[in-house]
Amino acid sequence: MDNPSIITQVTNPKEEEILSCSQDKVSQCNLSLKKQRSRSIFSTLFCCFRDYNVESPSPNGTSVLPPLVEENGGLQKPPAKYLLPEMTISDYGKKCVVIDLDETLVHSSFKPISNADFIVPVEIDGTIHQVYVLKRPHVDKFLQRMGDLFECVLFTASLAKYADPVADLLDRWGVFTARLFRESCVFHRGNYVKDLSRLGRELSKVVID
């Protein structure tokens, strides 16, 4: 990691800005830079914020979020359906494990990395940029074993244009039964939040990394 205080670092050659997380609370990442006109276009790709316990569960076992606000200030509409499809027969009876991508399975950077496992081209504002991706040690064995034991769902606050091709290269065994990206998060108080009550699974049987 380039800096111990940084979870995801993205560098623009002309304009160096970073999307950082505090060490003592990895689950929270301040996205206020999105509202600054001078922020780097690259920071829109990644987000390491993972706030899972937004509110205490209600007595019936579901999470309750206060009114959600879009980035433009408007209210978000509640989802018409759950994020996940019905559980497959092969996964029936298994717990659902929700796994993040950045700084959990991989580390990605726009800085060239000599030993990168993957180099993923990403189009931003009409220009192709190379994303250098390092796999976490033993991630292959981890994914295969998790796939044997659980229904595995990839849930990342990063954009699909980056995260989906990375997942294609990473998950060669089809471990993830579903992939959820930033559009599946809710925007709450300036942060992207993964609301597990929207998954369509019994919360007592959901585990998150």
Automatic annotation (TrEMBL):
Membrane spanning stretches: none
Protein name, UniProt field: CTD small phosphatase-like protein
UniProt cross-references to InterPro entries, sorted A to Z: Dullard_phosphatase, FCP1_dom, HAD-like_sf, HAD_sf, TIM50
Record domain FCP1 homology: where: 90-209
Gene behind this protein: NFI1
Keywords, alphabetical: Hydrolase, Protein phosphatase
One Pfam family from the record: NIF
Record's keyword annotation contains DNA damage: no
Species in which this protein is naturally found: Ophiophagus hannah (King cobra)
GO molecular function, one term: phosphoprotein phosphatase activity
